[in-house]
Design a protein that fits this description.
Order of helices and strands: HEHEHHHEHEHHHEEEHEEEEEHEHEEEEE
Shape: globular
Number of helices: 12
Number of domains: 2
Strand order of the largest sheet: 12-11-10-6-5-16-17-18
Length: 394
């Protein structure tokens, strides 16, 4: 059982992550009934900072019936929720605690309904993340995890470990995470290229020359807001970059991940990319490869319908190095996996909101094992290995 004090601590850190600076800031807080106590504590924290909270919550029963009730048609789900979008245009911040409580609900969702849902939320994401110039730079946002025994069972992980990764990982004092991310981030000053390898097949490089260096300690700083980087995930604990989208090549081995909409688990994925672009005909996976391919094709289709200036669905979008000391292994849940101490992750698709140039409905992070080797090439031509087998080389 999560203590009231820990719930309050997590709520406070979640509220800090959207940086409420002015009285009257309107904050939408969304999540499932299973975490309603947390939602209320976040709302109270928002009120203490002078903000105005609005809670939106649904149950797993509602979620399951959306997908399984034959009287609810895909053509209905495809319609964008324009009244809700109008409200989002007028908010200052958006906080989501991931739901449903049981991720397996979407495993059996009909494909046509999932596709319809993706189309319906595309206009919402345009507003939230400022995909279109008229909505730029977007809204402040936080996407946070919360544990449940049903989710732990879905990820096939002991609940105590699952709760520890999320709650303890989120409760780390921001001062401690600031110290950790600052120490790691100092190695990347004046960096040109980053080379990553491990004993499991990962071997790639990307360019971060003249790109932003973001120290994710769970706080939304004024500097990040000025950059247009208006949000993040909790638990926090990574240093990340928007790499040059048309540079870099090699292979990434990701032992475990989950697709965002279907919640299907993929294992032992190998992804090759060249000139910064994912080579889909060379992607392999032990499970659900078709789900990965369909996900990229679906987002590419939506990007084309939205007439983005240049299709970047498959281009490198993020390089991140995990450094949360509480999170030690992959479970297939991206909000914790990408923070694994000693791991590296590469995302493809969208990165405009944190200093990149790509707009896309796709943003999928693929995390290596926590035994990464990292070498940095600097602008002056020198090279330095900063991590060996997941440990910093001091």
């Amino acid at each position: 059982m999560i203590t009231k004090q820990k719930i309050k601590s997590c709520a406070e850190n979640i509220t800090k992550s959207v940086n409420i600076k002015n009285d009257g800031e309107f904050v939408v807080i969304r999540g499932g009934f299973h975490c309603y106590e947390l939602l209320e504590e976040i709302a109270l924290s928002v009120l203490r900072k002078g903000g105005i909270p609005h809670i939106v919550s649904t149950s797993d029963y509602f979620e399951e019936n959306i997908w399984q009730d034959d009287k609810i048609k895909a053509k209905t789900l495809e319609k964008p929720p324009f009244p809700y979008i109008e409200m989002i245009k007028n908010i200052d911040a958006y906080i989501v605690i991931e739901y449903p409580e049981d991720p397996s609900i979407r495993n059996e969702a009909p494909e046509n309904k999932l596709g319809a849902y993706q189309k319906s939320v595309a206009p919402l994401r345009e507003v939230l993340y400022g995909f279109k110039e008229e909505y730029a730079p977007g809204k402040k946002w936080c996407y946070a995890a919360w544990p449940s025994k049903k989710a732990a069972e879905f990820y096939n992980v002991d609940y105590e470990i699952y709760e520890k990764f999320i709650v303890d990982g989120m409760s780390i004092p921001s001062e401690e995470l600031t110290k950790i991310t600052t120490n790691l981030g100092k190695f990347f000053v004046d960096a040109k290229k980053v080379y990553v390898s491990d004993d499991f097949g990962t071997d790639f490089w990307v360019s971060i020359e003249n790109r932003a260096r973001i120290l994710d300690d769970g706080l939304l700083s004024d500097e990040q807001i000025a950059l247009g980087n208006l949000g993040g995930n909790l638990p926090a604990g990574e240093v990340f970059f928007p790499p040059n989208e048309k540079q870099g090549e090699g292979k990434i081995f990701c032992p475990l991940t989950k697709e965002r909409y279907t919640h299907k688990i993929l294992k032992n994925i190998e992804l090759n990319f060249k000139n910064g672009k994912l080579l889909m005909n060379k992607v392999t996976a032990d499970t659900n490869l078709d789900i990965l391919i369909d996900a990229f094709k679906q987002r590419e289709k939506i990007d084309k319908v939205n007439k983005v200036p240049e299709i970047r669905t498959y281009n490198v979008a993020e390089l991140g190095i995990g450094c949360n000391p509480v999170i030690t292994k992959a479970i297939g849940y991206i909000l914790t996996d990408e923070k694994i101490n000693g791991s590296v992750h590469v995302a493809f698709g969208f990165n405009k909101s944190f200093g990149g140039t790509s707009v896309s409905q796709m943003h999928w992070d693929f995390v290596t094992t926590p035994k990464a080797n990292i070498t940095i090439e600097y602008l002056d031509g020198t090279k330095k290995q900063i991590m060996e087998n997941g440990r910093l080389v001091e």
